[in-house]
Structure formats: structure tokens, C-alpha cells
Design brief:
Radius of gyration: 20 Å
Oligomer: single chain
Largest sheet: none
Helix content: 55-70%
Shape: globular
Strand content: under 5%
Length: 203
């Protein structure tokens, strides 16, 4: 799998029609094919800090790693740089700017400088708006399951989808949270193949 194909799979969820284990295996293979990420190319330092805080609130560290531990903000920067078109990229960056506008309007400071309870209030508002939009256009609910970005998709669904993809295609997310095993349960290397009527004769 080449890098471009890997990025396509990670960005669009093109393998979703396959079985869950096959999807996970292919997405993890794509994640490995992407390889080590270069320094940030789309997000600036402040934008990345905002993404990092928001992603960690979506998937916080508990007894398992959180979004920050798996490099979610770096993954999001990669998708913005190498897959999203200019319009989608602008929509995401404008959404980050809007988060700070909301924060200044409510609390007089940037989102990253707010205490967790105030940050949670802003995310709750964004989530409520996302829910209202989904009710008006039910088909868009698919976007959070890894479907391709759609024209007009707003910032917060984009952030959530990318955060979830970053997490569940990482080693920590797949093995720790989803309990993914390459060979599930057990492996019978020399299992006897039944023959005759018992095995259903095959021509």
C-alpha cells in the first residue's frame, strides 16, 4: 500500500463496507504506511494546541491512552495537508478560529487558556449544534463513522471523525480499546479437515 492510498483510506473510510476486522486491519496497515510524520505543515502552534486539547476531551486518557498519546493532532495536520482540499481545510481552520471567538465572548480568553469546565461548556455547545444539524440532515450522521468529507461539513464533526480515526487506527487504540487481535482467540495450525458425509462431501 503506497502513502497516497493509505491517506485515502484514512481520510475517507473507503473500506467501511468490509467486515469490521477487515476494516480495522486495513486501516491499521494504512496508518503504518503513512509512517513518521514531519513537523506541522498546516496547523500553527496555537491551532495545534487547540486541536490537542479538544481531541483529548473527546478521547481522554483514563486507564487507556488518550488522543494526545496517539498523536491525534499530528494525524489531523497530516489529513489537512495531504488530503483535504482548500475549501475543507479553510472550513476546519475557520472552525478553530470560531472556537476562540466563542471562548473570548464567554470567558474573555483563548480556548486553551480556559479551565476544563469552561472548555467543556464550549464543546457541549458544539455537540448540541452538531446534533441539531444531524436532525435536519440525517444522512450527514454517517460522517462521524468515517465517510468521506462532504461539502459543507462543519468543523466539529470533522474534528470528531478525524480524532476517532486517529485513535482507533493507532496501536494503542486498536489493541487496548478495541482489543483487536491479528489472530483472534486461538490458532489451530494443524486442525483436521473432516471428510465424507460428516464434512459434507465436496467435489
Amino acid at each position: 500500500m503506497n502513502r497516497r492510498e493509505a491517506i485515502r483510506l484514512l481520510a475517507t473510510g473507503a473500506v467501511l463496507p468490509l467486515t469490521p476486522n477487515t476494516v480495522l486491519a486495513m486501516m491499521r496497515e494504512a496508518r503504518k504506511a503513512v509512517g513518521t510524520q514531519p513537523p506541522l505543515r498546516t496547523l500553527n502552534a496555537h491551532q495545534e494546541a487547540t486541536v490537542k486539547v479538544m481531541a483529548e476531551m473527546i478521547l481522554p486518557r483514563t486507564d487507556t491512552p488518550g488522543a494526545t498519546d496517539v498523536g491525534a493532532s499530528e494525524f489531523i495536520d497530516l489529513m489537512l495537508t495531504e488530503w483535504y482540499d482548500g475549501g475543507e481545510r479553510d472550513r476546519f481552520l475557520n472552525g478553530l478560529e470560531d472556537v476562540d471567538h466563542r471562548s473570548h465572548s464567554l470567558f474573555g480568553k483563548d480556548f486553551v487558556d480556559c479551565p476544563a469546565i469552561q472548555q467543556a461548556e464550549i464543546l457541549t455547545d458544539l455537540g448540541a449544534e452538531m446534533g441539531e444539524a444531524a436532525e435536519l440532515a440525517p444522512g450527514r450522521a454517517r460522517s462521524l463513522q468515517g465517510s468521506p468529507p462532504r461539502t459543507g461539513e462543519s468543523f466539529y464533526p470533522m474534528l470528531r471523525r478525524l480524532t476517532l480515526t486517529a485513535y482507533y487506527t493507532s496501536e494503542a487504540g486498536a489493541t487496548g480499546e478495541l482489543k483487536y487481535e491479528v489472530i483472534p482467540d486461538h490458532f489451530d495450525a494443524c486442525a483436521e479437515v473432516p471428510t465424507g458425509k460428516e464434512g459434507g462431501d465436496r467435489q
